[in-house]
Amino acid sequence: MTKYAKIENDVVKVISYPPAEGFVEVADNVFADMVLQPDGSYDYTDEFKAEYQPVETYADRRRKEYPSWQDQLDDIYHNGVDGWKATIKATKDKYPKP
């Protein structure tokens, strides 16, 4: 299904699926409150992101950086628990608890 947007001052004001006068065709990943960028893409403003996107915590950053559980088991097998602890500690030190 084709998506359309009403754009005013480079800001997406309204999204519509049936075509309407004054609306332009946009990609499926364009939503209201997005801003038309110089390269033709759409993105939210930094202010919008700061208000509505969740803040990444130290735990989120750790979770992304820890090896998979399979790699951790492999690390324990090859390097022992002390080697595994060193690997995990490096991530914990990089993203300490507040």
Low-pLDDT segments: none
Helix/strand structural class: alpha+beta
Structural domains: how many: 2
The number of helical elements comes to 3
Helix coverage percent: 40-55%
End-to-end distance, in Å?
47 Å
Number of strands: 5
Helix and strand pattern: EEEEEHHH
What would the average pLDDT be, to the nearest integer? 94
Shape: elongated
Q: Please give the radius of gyration in angstroms.
A: 23 Å
Biggest β-sheet: strands ordered side by side in the sheet: 2-1-3
Largest sheet: 3 strands, antiparallel
Index terms:
98 residues, alpha+beta, 2 domains, three-stranded antiparallel beta sheet
Describe what this molecule looks like in 3D.
The protein has 98 residues and is an alpha+beta fold. It has 2 domains: 3-52, no CATH class; 58-94, no CATH class. The protein has 3 helices and 5 strands, in the order βββββααα. It has a 3-stranded antiparallel sheet with strand order 2-1-3, with no helix packed on it. A two-stranded antiparallel sheet has the order 4-5. A hairpin with a 5-residue loop joins strand 4 and strand 5. The radius of gyration is 23 Å and the shape is elongated. The N and C termini lie far apart (47 Å). The relative contact order is 0.11. The model has no long low-confidence stretch (mean pLDDT 94).
